[in-house]
Design brief:
The protein has 2 helices and 3 strands, in the order ββααβ. A 3-stranded antiparallel beta sheet has the order 2-1-3, with helices on one face. It is an alpha+beta fold. It is globular and about 25 Å long.
C-alpha cells in the first residue's frame, strides 16, 4: 500500500490518497489534479508525487 498527501505538492489541499501500489495512487492523483486543481498531469507533477509517496 502507498499513500500520498496532495498538500505536500499543492499547499492548502487536504486530500489524501491510498492505493495498492504506485500506479494506483498516480491514477487517483492525476484525476484529482485535473479536476480539482486544473493541473495537467505531466512529467514534473508525476516526479513530485513519486518523491513524496509513502508506504502505508
Amino acid at each position: 500500500m502507498k499513500t500520498f498527501r496532495c498538500g505536500d505538492v499543492v499547499p492548502g489541499c487536504l486530500r489524501e490518497f491510498v492505493g495498492r501500489d504506485r500506479e494506483d495512487v498516480l491514477a487517483q492523483v492525476g484525476e484529482h489534479a485535473l479536476r480539482d486543481h486544473g493541473l495537467q498531469p505531466d512529467e514534473d507533477l508525476v516526479r513530485a508525487v513519486e518523491e513524496r509517496l509513502r508506504d502505508a
